[in-house]
Amino acid sequence: MSFNLALLDAAEKNKIELDKQASFLVWKMKQAKGGPEEITKQLAKLSSEAEKAWFQQSVDKYKRVMGVM
Prior knowledge:
By secondary structure, this protein is mostly helical. The chain has one domain. 71% of the residues lie in helices and 0% in strands. The chain is globular and about 35 Å long. InterPro entries: DUF3283 (IPR021700), PolIII_theta_sf (IPR036745). This is DUF3283 family protein.
């Protein structure tokens, strides 16, 4: 099954991008190439509360999956 992400609306594309950023930042923490301050900086850049909540949920998800505390 394949999905054409280009067909998604802007809000859904943004959610996917935020999820990717969260995954990358948690991976960097796991590899000791970054710290929690990078997540805090990214959260500060987001304007809407919905984006912040989605990003934080994604960070929490990837921390569980990758075993980062």
